[in-house]
Structure formats: structure tokens, C-alpha cells
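Hey Z.,

So I finally got round to the zinc ion thing we talked about over coffee. Here's the setup:
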Amino acid sequence: MTRQKLYELACRTLRPLKLGQFGESGIVACALESTSGRVFTGICIDLPCALGFCAERAAAAEMLKGGECVVRRIVTVNRDGRILPPCGSCREFLMQLGECNADAIVAVDAGRDLPLAQLLPERWN
Ligand SMILES: [Zn+2]
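And the result:
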């Protein structure tokens, strides 16, 4: 799937929802394509006290549920449709799903894609 199609899917996956007094979900969404060509999506859940999780990990969980663990391409957007690079935890999370994910193409902004390996220099392992 093209970057543009993943971007459009991520935008369609956005689903802002208030949760309780301080929480919300669906304000960031992710679409990723595995190396088999299947596509998975996820949304963030933001709750107080650092609870919740990122859209990238939600999409990765869907991929794992589908029996796959290697990402070909990943695009994440905020509620305004701006592409966001994965946070440091999600970069590490994706890499720990398998070193093959070093080659995953990550959309870091509107005009740039980088392999995950370049977003995680000087690996600890
Ligand atoms: Zn994250």
C-alpha cells in the first residue's frame, strides 16, 4: 500500500472520544502495513497518570493478533491530519517485535520517510 493510502486510512481511523473527566482516545491514529501486505490500524488512549498507550502500539497489537510481527511501512497522524513520528517508546517497541523491523519505513513528517533503524541509533543490545 502506498504512503498516501496509509495516510488516508490513518486519518479515517481517527475517532476522538472523551473518557471520563480527563481522558480521551482516538486523537492520534496509526495505519501500518506488514510485510505480507496486510494493513492494521490503531488509536491512542490517553488517560491521567501515564495510563493508556500510543496508536502505534495499538496497531502493532492488531498485527500480532493477525499472526504477524514485521512492519513494512507505518504512518501516524494527529487529529489535524499532521503526520507524527513515533515516540521513543514506540520506536523501541517496534524494534523489539523483531530486528527485521529495522527496515520498517516510518513516516516522520509530511515529506520524509526513514527506516526505523535510523530513528534508533546506537542500539543498546
Ligand atoms: Zn508512542
